[in-house]
User: What shape does this take?
Amino acid sequence: MENAGELVPFMLFFCITVGVLATLYWNAKVREGQQETLRQVIASGQKLDETTLKLMVKAPHSPEMDLRAGLISLMMGLGFCAAGGISKLNEFDAGGFGTFLILIGCIVGFTGLGQLLSWRLRRPAPPSQPQ
Assistant: This one.
């Protein structure tokens, strides 16, 4: 294997993909088990109290979670961009590392902006003031 170094990036993305797919599969199996348990309880005629039902059924994320995640992602993106800019200014940019950090910062920052947009669209409207 003369070109084993070329397999490193491929294996990195392969391992990340396998990890994400395994997590999705595991979560789907857990969810399927919960749904089967609910079906059996309902079929047997037992009554479900509200606390048990809340434990079994996952509530959707609140708009405040989008706000928090969006602010964190936006600040991380700005931090990566700043680190890349400092790297480029101080001549540490061997091989384009500063540019790479700036690109990562842009991706993370735009993800944060998307989460902030989601928060803005999902938050409840303020009550109107009588005039």
